[in-house]
């Protein structure tokens, strides 16, 4: 039996080529009927090289769903480079942006496979070129160049992906613009930590683009998908570039992401992060400025993707204490030391009063 895979994620890279003027969703999740899959919390590292117009996108995400197997499509304006990325950079960056200790302070969409793939002669006339196939970071990846969105959807069906007219409509402007489509399959397996959760391996996708971005548009989660979508999911982006950056959605709909931390990194931290991501020391700018964004990403239709540009202000930002400022020390050793100094004199004075 052919494996049915749902498409749950799409990475849009910016390009000078024009897209269709009609609004098109950047991601149309499709999955086995009755077995929806959605994106859960995500942590992303983006390294942007403005001089080379190159973006490295490293994604550490979890999915929630009932399907044992699923996949996703990744459009990019040029053929991407796919490599496994190390996971150690994520906790490293988290430690760098932790708040400093304070001791004194104040104050469902169910898309079936009903489309008719046509005759064998029709399929031969529809061209999909496989530019690269590889297994990377637990994914089976195929980089595709399609002559039409119809050809792409036929290829998806023939290779075990669920597809629908919605997928064809989603893919059409990117295929017509000459973008490459990377199809990836994820297998959850029997050793998953929970029945309806999948933790994907860190995967690096590198590509040429005019502007750095994060794919923010998704299909509207309805029906059965709404039942597994969390009330709140956190999107965290570690953005590494030559300066502090800011994210933008549209003028009418400002992005809800907030800067939690911003500042220059030391040469040692830059070297360590690139080593942990399995990237050459020459990757990106010579000096890293880290901007950390936090966004409570809602499960609803978004008008655009998030694009980044150099921020108007280059001030540093430090994270506020998670528990808020405190008037007293939080280290137990401080209180123990104080007890050694204060308690004995008080005890001697009390004994003299009780035994005159």
Describe the structure.
- It is a single chain.
- By secondary structure, this protein is an alpha+beta fold.
- The protein has one domain.
- It is built from 7 helices and 15 strands.
- Strands 1, 2, 4, 8, 9, 11, 13 and 14 form an 8-stranded mixed beta sheet that branches.
- Helix 3 (149-158) packs across helix 4.
- The longest helix has 23 residues, at 332-354.
- The radius of gyration is 25 Å and the shape is elongated.
- 37% of the residues are buried.
Secondary structure blueprint with pairings:
Layout: E1 37-49, E2 54-65, E3 69-76, E4 81-84, H1 89-96, H2 120-125, E5 128-136, E6 139-146, H3 149-158, H4 165-176, E7 180-187, E8 197-199, E9 203-208, E10 213-214, H5 224-228, E11 233-241, E12 245-248, E13 258-264, H6 267-276, E14 289-297, E15 306-310, H7 332-354
Parallel strand pairs: 1-11
Antiparallel strand pairs: 1-2, 2-8, 2-9, 3-7, 4-9, 5-6, 6-7, 10-15, 11-14, 12-15, 13-14
């Amino acid at each position: 039996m052919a494996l049915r895979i749902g498409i749950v994620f799409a990475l849009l890279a910016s390009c000078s080529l024009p897209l269709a003027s009609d609004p098109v969703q950047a991601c149309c999740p499709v999955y086995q009927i009755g077995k929806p899959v959605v994106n859960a919390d995500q942590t992303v590292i983006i390294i942007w090289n403005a001089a080379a117009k190159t973006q490295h996108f490293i994604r550490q995400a979890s999915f929630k769903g009932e399907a044992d197997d699923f996949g996703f499509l990744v459009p990019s304006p040029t053929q991407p480079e796919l490599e496994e990325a190390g996971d150690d950079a994520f906790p490293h960056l988290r430690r760098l942006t932790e708040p400093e200790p304070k001791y004194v302070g104040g104050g469902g969409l169910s898309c079936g496979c009903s489309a008719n793939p046509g005759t064998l002669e029709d399929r031969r006339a529809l061209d999909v070129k496989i530019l690269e196939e590889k297994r990377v970071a637990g994914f089976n990846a195929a980089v595709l160049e399609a002559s039409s969105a119809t050809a792409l959807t036929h290829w998806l069906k023939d290779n075990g992906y669920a597809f629908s007219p919605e997928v064809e409509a989603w893919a059409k402007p990117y295929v017509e613009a000459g973008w490459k489509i990377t199809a990836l399959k994820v297998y959850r397996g029997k050793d998953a930590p929970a029945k309806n959760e999948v933790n994907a391996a860190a995967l690096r996708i590198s590509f040429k683009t005019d502007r750095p971005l994060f794919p923010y548009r998704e299909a509207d989660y309805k029906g059965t998908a709404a039942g597994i979508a969390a009330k709140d999911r956190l999107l965290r982006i570690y953005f590494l570039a030559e300066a502090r950056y800011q994210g933008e959605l549209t003028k009418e709909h400002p992005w809800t992401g907030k800067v939690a931390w911003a500042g220059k990194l030391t040469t040692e931290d830059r070297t360590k992060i690139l080593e942990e991501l399995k990237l050459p020391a020459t990757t990106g700018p010579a000096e890293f400025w880290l901007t950390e964004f936090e966004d409570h990403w809602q499960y609803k239709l978004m008008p655009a993707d998030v694009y980044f540009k150099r921020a108007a202000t280059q001030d540093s930002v430090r994270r506020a204490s998670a528990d808020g400022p405190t008037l007293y020390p939080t280290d137990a050793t401080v209180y123990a030391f104080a007890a050694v100094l204060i308690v004995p004199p008080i005890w001697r004075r009390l004994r003299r009063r009780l035994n005159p």
